[in-house]
Amino acid sequence: MRGVNPNSSVHASYDVAVVGGGIVGAAILHELSKYRLRVVLLEKHHDVAEGITKANSGVLHAGLMVPSGSLKARFNVEGIKLYKALARDFGIAVHNCRKLIIAQDDSELPNLRRLLDQGRANGVPGLALLNAEQVRTLQPNVVAKHALLSEETSVTLPYQMAIALAENAVLNGAEVRLNAEVSSIRPHPDGGYRMQTTAGDRISAKLIVNAAGVHADRIMELLEPPAERIWPWRGQYHLLEEASGTVVNMAVYPLPPKDGSGLGVHITPTVNGGILLGPSAESVTDGTDTANSAAALEQLQREAFALVPALRGFQTIKNYSGVRPKLFGPDSGVSFKDFHIEPSKAFPGVINLLGIESPGLTAAPAIAEHVLEQFVAAHLELSPNRDWQIRWEPIPRLRWLPAEEKQRLWRQDPAWGHILCHCEQVSRAEIGRAVANPLGAVSIHAIRKRTHATLGRCQSSFCLGPVSAEILRRGSDIGMVRRGTPAHPVFTGVEPA
């Protein structure tokens, strides 16, 4: 039977082991799969994209918000081009929504000009300063005295890209092991490293790429003192009902706070419709602390409604949060730290990626190329995988298909006409395809990320039963039907077979 972790424990040897299944780890695995290498990705959760990759605003940044000359600036500007090319290859939606950075009075205009100069120095196209009348013409519901327009800013579904990268890598010969938290790493006298996971895996690898996000310093600590301490910062969000998308169709930001803690409240249109408000910026002690707080959520609303008062009255259908891995704390006296992407000096063959926060989503494809070219190629002879190709295809979204295509699918398979999630119009056929994913991930969250079932206005109040029943019908044990991690079963009193 297929389960949350369908593979039994293994003892296997690899050329490269990637630790962490977020967007960066998935992008690195995807790059490695293009070569004749034996590669594995080790992920502690039940699926890829379960950390900050699924809990961010989904913005593909143009590259104007980060200091010139930094790795963040370089990989942001390179990454947005690579990301959009990958999205075209995979058939993943990227909406070029554009962005306005708002100044509410004349005193803020010099800071807008500074961002404009910084963006141009970074090589960002499509930037322009706007006055109040020009802003009203573009977005009548936005309150602003001045604004900086970014034509290149886009929005996407970040978890869909991470899934596509990981699954396409698997379809091209790579391996992904889920529920496999790395518990020890030891150098081997004959070279390379021996790793153990909580799933009982014993992994040998010539090279290790540590892309474990908010836990990357802990992975590094299994071998040596971390080069940088990761400070978890929690960002909370409101997801507003779909009708809110009629109010504003561009990303709207205030000028970012001078302390570098964040970018201020984002007002972000989503690919699915509706508006995101957030994130907040709160230092927390636990990288897994994704709780929501009334005070932070109320503050987000106040800040957002000051920029776009017309959003008042739209209902929040979901609150969520993610934890981003900053390299400075609230009292560090630092407002910016760059990505840390460095090979270990004491342990050759290990590279650590620390502090991969915003614009990490946008930068991920460029970071992956850098790791391959500057690290992997320095240790291993790379021979192209001549059978490699784009094999992954998105599951068709019935909701978005034209009527004639829906009819064609219904005639081909009646399951396309059997709707299980009415808010998002997800059919039984879509759930079936999601359950059969190459990673073998079958939790409710895994199905949600692949189909958007349970993600709509009712937030699974009506569809949790039918979706769970379909997972069971497709061969899973009832104990395997879980919302997220193995600690959160949907049905109580049962255990996996």
What does this structure look like?
- The protein is built from twelve helices and 22 strands.
- A hairpin with a 5-residue loop joins strand 15 and strand 16.
- It folds into three domains: 231 residues, FAD/NAD(P)-binding domain, CATH 3.50.50; 146 residues, D-Amino Acid Oxidase, Chain A, domain 2 (2-Layer Sandwich); 83 residues, Arc Repressor Mutant, subunit A.
- The N terminus is likely disordered.
- The radius of gyration is 22 Å and the shape is globular.
- Helix 2 packs across helix 8.
- The chain is of the alpha+beta class and 497 residues long.
- Strands 1, 2, 9, 10, 11, 12, 19 and 20 form an eight-stranded mixed beta sheet that branches.
Report the CATH C-level class of the largest domain.
Answer: Alpha Beta
In helices, the fraction of residues equals 25-40%
What is the count of DSSP helices, taking H or I runs of 4+ residues? Answer: 12
Q: Outline the low-pLDDT stretches.
A: 1-6
Query: What Rg is obtained from the alpha carbons, in whole angstroms?
Result: 22 Å
CATH superfamily of the largest domain, please? Answer: FAD/NAD(P)-binding domain
Mean pLDDT: 94
The number of distinct structural domains comes to 3
Largest sheet: 8 strands, mixed
Structural class: alpha+beta
CATH topology of the largest domain: FAD/NAD(P)-binding domain
How widely separated are the two ends?
9 Å
The tally of beta strands, per DSSP, is: 22
**What is the strand content?**
15-25%
CATH architecture label of the largest domain:
3-Layer(bba) Sandwich
Shape: globular
